[in-house]
């Protein structure tokens, strides 16, 4: 039951976790041993920032339609013109905005950004760094971040 009334808030992360385990629990026991993999389809650009030490939610979730225009100047300075990350609702804008508000006094070594589907799968396998290829923000041709973005982002994030 995800319907909300005006003014009512929803704890999205808890509702996603609850729905995942409810669905898994609904699988008839006779079929469970034949399941070898699970795929989760999440909403693109819906992200969470968690503490890699304990899995606790540090921020978010930031929903796909939430915009963070405060991050656009920095993101636009390192991204190619008209790139998809130059939208206030991009994952990169969400990360940059959070970083500016929470890590201005230095880095936060325990923070890790995860997309919705990656976080839900993490709840099942517990391994950080496992990510849907489409969520990595890397070049689809080279499987790497373009040099100008990697350098600019690294310098900016870890100054």
From TrEMBL:
Name of the protein in question: Uncharacterized protein
Gene Ontology MF terms: D-ribulokinase activity; D-xylulokinase activity
Similarity-based family: Belongs to the FGGY kinase family.
GO BP terms, alphabetized: xylulose metabolic process
Keywords, ordered alphabetically: Kinase, Transferase
GO cellular component: cytosol
Entry superkingdom: Eukaryota
Species the sequence originates in: Aegilops tauschii subsp. strangulata
């Amino acid at each position: 039951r995800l319907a909300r009334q005006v003014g009512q808030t929803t704890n999205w992360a808890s509702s996603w976790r609850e729905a995942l385990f409810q669905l898994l629990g609904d699988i008839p026991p006779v079929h469970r041993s034949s399941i070898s993999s699970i795929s989760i389809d999440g909403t693109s650009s819906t992200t969470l920032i968690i503490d890699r030490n304990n899995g606790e939610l540090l921020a978010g979730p930031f929903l796909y339609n939430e915009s963070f225009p405060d991050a656009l100047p920095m993101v636009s300075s390192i991204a190619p013109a008209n790139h998809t990350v130059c939208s206030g609702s991009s994952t990169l804008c969400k990360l940059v905005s959070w970083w500016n508000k929470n890590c201005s006094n230095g880095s936060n070594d325990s923070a890790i950004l995860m997309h919705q589907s990656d976080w839900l799968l993490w709840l099942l396998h517990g391994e950080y760094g496992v990510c849907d290829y489409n969520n990595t923000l890397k070049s689809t041709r080279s499987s790497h971040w373009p040099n100008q973005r990697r350098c600019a982002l690294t310098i900016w994030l870890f100054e």
